[in-house]
User: What shape does this take?
Amino acid sequence: MFFTHTVLVFILSCVLGDAYIEKLSPRLQKKYEELCNTLPADPYFRESAIVDSTWRAYFVWNEDMYDKCIDIVFKLPNPLLIKTIQTRMRKYMKKEPAWYNATLYMTINSYRGILLIPDSDKRLGRFIQVPNLVRGSYDIAPEKKSMQLYKATFKLLYLGWYMLFCDCSKGVTFILARRDRKVSPKVLEAIADSYDYGKGPYPTCLDPDWND
Assistant: This one.
């Protein structure tokens, strides 16, 4: 295994990749799930509002990224892509998800892919994450029937210009902004000051030349 147990691992970071096979204590898992459950309060989320745009992470709670830039693109998955991921990943799953309910495909920094399947509890913006383990995209080698799937929650802010994204496996929560629109540091800082999701928020990928 490339990463040590002491490293926080979670899907979104694009630096760490084996959240699915790290064992969590029941206490920590409950803590992260409770944190993730706080995000959908007064939810605003539409898949059509996030697809085909690049989103960049600017702040993060519970993990210091040390100025690491993370860009995410969302697309609508076609049946062939869903079938390909199902064929590739089903042997690793402890329990298979409802594959053809998938509604989004998320690509992180152009090379790590995650299929997003709406959670069965039908909360707006809540998904199950299935990594697309293409060779070279993740530094992990899971065993058969070993992977537990974790949830993620999304919430759009400021009429869809900004977004919160919480990876429920580790409680790591990001503030994202669309890259095709002007990003306001004051708005990002206001969002960061308005929420408390744990340690942080830590700035990531901030541009020193920003101006309103």
Observations:
- The chain has three helices and nine strands.
- Residues 1-22 have pLDDT under 50 and may be disordered.
- The longest strand covers residues 54-61.
- Residues 26-203 form a domain with the Lipocalin fold (CATH 2.40.128).
